[in-house]
Amino acid sequence: MFESIQFTFFLIGCIASLALFILVVQRYVRPTQKYYPRPVITNFESKMFARLNQSFPEYHILAQVAFSALITHHNMKVRAKFNRKVTDFVILDKKLQVIAIIELDDPTHIGKEQEDAERDAMLLQAGYQVYRYTNIPSPQSLRRDILNHS
Question: pTM here?
């Protein structure tokens, strides 16, 4: 009887030790994921955001809008072409209708003209007006460009 109790305690000890070992190994082999914040927009984009707000106080300016919030398609393969893309800015009127989509092209866009054209074509086909700028235009230029076409 005493041996049976000893064996039971030995077995419980082994199981507890094994469980502890597994927890320790999981912690070091597969450490918990650490997430870090990052800016929503770049410094260059933040200047454009301020300029858009200055130029269009009567409208809503959205930054970093997913294409999937703007366009859709019945075919999943086609959706896969845009489901991870993001546009820099969207201008909405008071009824929350899209007035324009703004893309700000910094030097990282050099050599990506074909990719940018394909992105624009998707949005244009959906009926949106897309404006691309390589620098931050004056408020007058922005208003002239966008309000004359909407």
Answer: 0.73
